C-alpha cells in the first residue's frame, strides 16, 4: 500500500496531527534527525537478539532508568501552557483549551503509557555510553535512519487491518536540549492541539493529545545532558495491539518489537528487510583479545545475513 493510500485511511484527527512534524521541522534543533546514521550501545545479548530476530525493541518510556527525563519535558509543556493561558487571545478556542487543561493538570503517566522509545546517539566510540550501557563486553551498532521501523504483529491478528493505521509521529528525532528550543517546541505542540474543534470526537482528541504531548515530552532533556547528543526513535503504540514483556535486572519491562519497513506508519505482519545496520563496533577490550573477538563478530554477522556490515573495534584505552 502506498503512503498516499495509507494517509487516505487515517481519520481526520490523525491527519491533522501528521502535519505537526512539518511545524516542528521549522524549529531549529527539533526536527527529525538529519544524521544519516546513529549509534546504539548495548551488550552481547542485545546485539545477538537484534540480528537473530531482525528486530529492535522499543521500550516503554515509563520503564526508563531515570523517569525525571520525562518529567523535564512535561514541566516545559506545563510552563508554556501557563504563559499561553495568561493571554486570552492565544487560547480563545475554549473547547480545545479545556482538553489541554485536563491533560496538563494531571500526572503524565496516563498520557505516555503507550509511548515507546529506542535510544541512540550521534557519537561513536563514546566512553560515557560504553560505561553506561554496554556492560563488560559491549557493542555499538550503527543504524541508518532511512528505513522506518514498524510494529511487527502476528499475521493472524485480526486487528492488523491497513484501514486502522493511525499511528502518528513514529520516527528518528534529535533530542532537544536548548531551553529556548524546548519552549518553541512546546508552543508548537500546544498551538496544534488548539486547532481541534468540537466536530472531532472526544476519544480522538484524547488519543491525539496523548500522542502529541507524549511525543514532545520524550524529545526533551535537561541541557546538562547535551554532550550525549541523543537521537530517539519514538513510537506511540495503538492500545489494541499487543505489547511484549521481558525481564530486565530485577524488574519487568514492556516493549514493542519493530522491524525495518519502507512504510512510515503503523505496523506490518510480514517483513523481508534486514535491519538497516551499517557497522558494529566492538567495545573496549584487552589488546590480546581484540583480534579474536573481532573475528567472532564478523563470523556472527555473516551467519545471520549481515555479511555486508562492517565490524569495527573501539580504540579507547578503557577496560570495563
Walk me through what this model shows.
This protein has 320 residues and is α+β, with helices and mostly antiparallel strands. It is built from eleven helices and twelve strands. A hairpin with a 2-residue loop joins strand 8 and strand 9. Helix 5 crosses helix 9 and helix 5 packs across helix 10. The protein is elongated, with a radius of gyration of 20 Å.
Task: Describe the structure using short key phrases.
alpha+beta, disordered N terminus, 37% helix, 320 residues, single chain, eight-stranded mixed β-sheet
Backbone shape: elongated
What is the CA–CA distance across the termini?
48 Å
Order of helices and strands: HHHEHEHHHEHEEEHHEEEEEHE
Q: How many runs of DSSP E, i.e. beta strands?
A: 12
Helix content: 25-40%
Which radius of gyration do the C-alpha atoms yield?
A: 20 Å
Estimated structural class:
alpha+beta
DSSP strand content:
15-25%
Number of helices: 11
Total domain units: 1
Short description:
It is built from eleven helices and twelve strands. It has 320 residues and is an alpha+beta fold.
Helices and strands, with pairings:
Blueprint: H1 3-8, H2 12-18, H3 20-25, E1 37-43, H4 44-53, E2 56-60, H5 68-85, H6 94-105, H7 109-112, E3 115-121, H8 127-133, E4 138-144, E5 148-152, E6 171-174, H9 179-193, H10 202-217, E7 230-236, E8 244-248, E9 251-261, E10 267-268, E11 277-282, H11 287-303, E12 310-313
Parallel strand pairs: 5-10, 11-12
Antiparallel strand pairs: 1-4, 2-3, 2-9, 3-7, 4-11, 5-9, 6-7, 8-9
